[in-house]
Specification:
2 copies of one chain form a homodimer. The first copy, chain A, has a domain of 95 residues: Arc Repressor Mutant, subunit A (Orthogonal Bundle). Chain A contains 6 helices and 3 strands, in the order ααβααββαα. Chain A has a 3-stranded antiparallel sheet with strand order 1-3-2. The model of chain A has no long low-confidence stretch (mean pLDDT 90). At the A-B interface, helix 1, helix 2 and helix 6 of A face helix 1, helix 2 and helix 6 of B. The structure holds a DNA duplex (30 and 30 nucleotides).
DNA sequence: CCTCATCGCTCAGCCTGCTGAGTACCAGGT
DNA sequence: ACCTGGTACTCAGCAGGCTGAGCGATGAGG
């Protein structure tokens, strides 16, 4: 039972995710980034956005995204300012430093993910888990 | 880019893991258990063990496992007591309540994992990510 | 028998998820 | 003009990952 191949698939999935995330974390730390911050920065490459939009796109709660953005702001990777036309919104934009950090991270993206036999079918299976949520969340 | 099928595989993996974990969390909360606690309880079905052993079997850090066990103890699912022959070790054992809770959780295990086309090939891919770690960690 | 490296564990602290509760703002209906 | 509902966000708090530092117990070597 202590052997991984006896584990239920859900546990296997979480563990695999942690392992991959961990590998990323080590690389990103050197760039002053985190796993979560990278996603936000990625989304911001298409232009400024509100926190709620970013949270929805990243599939996390608004509160989680807000905290991540707060960190990114503290580190100078993004700016956050109240929207002038709708004072409820906070407009988030990547700074030059943020964009540069993202580009650097992007460059090492490929060699972090461990090799698997059939990457396409793995992606496919994962999409079957993730996709349904998109429909019900919208 | 906001669409999941554009995402890098690593991000897909983390997101899928979170979704599945979340589904579990909802069910487990009703049994007074958590995702992490369930794993510990599972491992303890084979008898009492030290915290380091449990951590290694669950592929988490000792500190993480210790905190999880502390919670389980607080809730009455396990007991923790100093080993009499090696006073460094803490022997952890499942209580009756813990074993009962585990059995209840086990029963709903199957219907939580979302359906995918080819579960076996997904397991296989995940094992390719998880397994290498076992060899290098031992 | 004593010393010292190693082992098992605790404490402190950070980041990412989540929930629940509360605040400020916008917009629509009366 | 005024509620009223919904939207965007903040604050507080919990659980689970991780790292780094420190401490007592063990056990092997001199």
């Amino acid at each position: 039972m202590a052997d991984a191949d006896e584990w239920p698939t859900g546990r296997l999935l979480s563990t695999a995710a942690r392992i991959v995330e961990q590998a990323w974390t080590e690389r990103l730390a050197q760039l002053g980034l985190t796993h979560a911050g990278l996603i936000a920065l990625h989304l911001l490459q298409e232009g400024p956005a509100g926190q709620t939009d970013l949270a929805r796109a990243a599939r996390v709660q608004l509160q989680t995204m807000a905290r991540t953005l707060e960190r990114l702001e503290r580190l100078g990777h993004v700016t956050r300012q109240r929207d002038t036309v709708d004072a409820r919104r906070v407009l988030v934009a990547a700074t030059e430093a943020g964009t540069a950090a993202f580009a650097a991270a992007r460059a090492v993206e490929a060699d972090v993910f461990p090799p698997v036999e059939d990457p396409e079918s793995l992606r496919n299976a994962l999409l079957q888990i993730v996709q349904p949520r998109v429909a019900t969340t919208d």
